[in-house]
Amino acid sequence: MASDDQDNTASLVHSPLHARMQPERTVQDAVAWHLRLSSPTACESDFEEFAVWIESDPNNRSVFDQVEDLDTDLSAALLEETKPKNSDSWRPVGAQPRGLGRFGAHNWMAGAAMMAASLLIVIPVATRAPQAMRYATAIGQSRTVHLPDGSMIDMSTDTSITVQIGATKRYVILDRGEAVFRIRPDRERPFLVRAGDREVRDIGTVFDVLCNSGEVTIAVAEGQIAVGRVSDAESVILRAGDRVRHTEGTNSSERDRIDPKLVTAWQSGYLVYQDAPLTRVIGDLNRYFRIPIIVEPGAPFSLRFSGVLHIRDQAAAIAQLTAFLPIVAVHVSDGSIRLRAAAMKP
């Protein structure tokens, strides 16, 4: 006969994962990763292995996001369920717990296995610092994350990051998108940012990282950083005004110079290009607007663009492109915007 604890826990929520019929193994892995990254013993190698798992299957990201969302929803429900009646000893979320209350560690492990198997997911109520935190923005949104060490992360549109700030390390995974990092100096705790297969090591400065469509771009606005392959001791030093572009999975990298003031231009509502491939420009614009822009077959993919594009108005951005390049923009019935080669004048 099942215990009352198990009955109460299982009845709290019927996960959306059930309706979507996610593979049982994926759900179990997602729960395991949530527990592992929330552990006080989580280390840099855990984050590296997590990134490999996330990238191994497109479905992993979706399932993990749902598990993380349930963490927020269920914590409140479980705390209310376990709150002693007429007692001042109950601790709210964020308070330093002495234990897991009547949902002990054994019950949580058994419960997680039981509910992952049946696609009913329950997440532990409380974990000790340092805890991995995930932040995300939707298309067209931006946000600023204030870290407990005094650093700030300005997240651009359609961006996802995983953050862990502890006593001996500060670590961020840029899963996708773009962010400006304003790092508070701390020589005892270097700040590490992983984007794709590249890792940025910083002590205290301002820099921007973009991870989009298999390309990682890193630019420095202030100070200096070290950039290298993940888990590789070798690195290159980038200083204010330096920018490097790298294609994931290759040894291909391009390094150039940029006005340091333009590193954070997107925060002012515009993007600046100098002889940039049209495909890169369109890839950037598609991060900012919900209506997809598609370069049709036969269009001049080799075109390159130099100029400034405003990213708060899609129509204005497209008008700027078509004014400077031999292309036309056509709205089609599926809701997308297609870029085609402009007809040659007789």
Integer-rounded radius of gyration = 23 Å
Terminal Cα span: 85 Å
CATH architectural designation of the largest domain: Sandwich
Structural class: alpha+beta
Give me the oligomer status: single chain
Succession of helices and strands = HHHHHHEEEEEEEEEEEEEEHEEHEE
Number of folding domains?
3
CATH level-3 fold name of the largest domain: Jelly Rolls
Count of separate DSSP helical elements: 8
Mean pLDDT: 78
Q: State the helical fraction.
A: 25-40%
CATH class of the largest domain: Mainly Beta
Q: Uncertain runs with pLDDT below 50, 5 residues or more?
A: 1-21, 72-108, 114-129
The biggest sheet, with number of strands, parallel, antiparallel or mixed sense and barrel status, is: 13 strands, mixed
Shape: globular
What percentage of the residues does DSSP assign to strands (E)? Answer: 25-35%
The beta-strand count equals 18
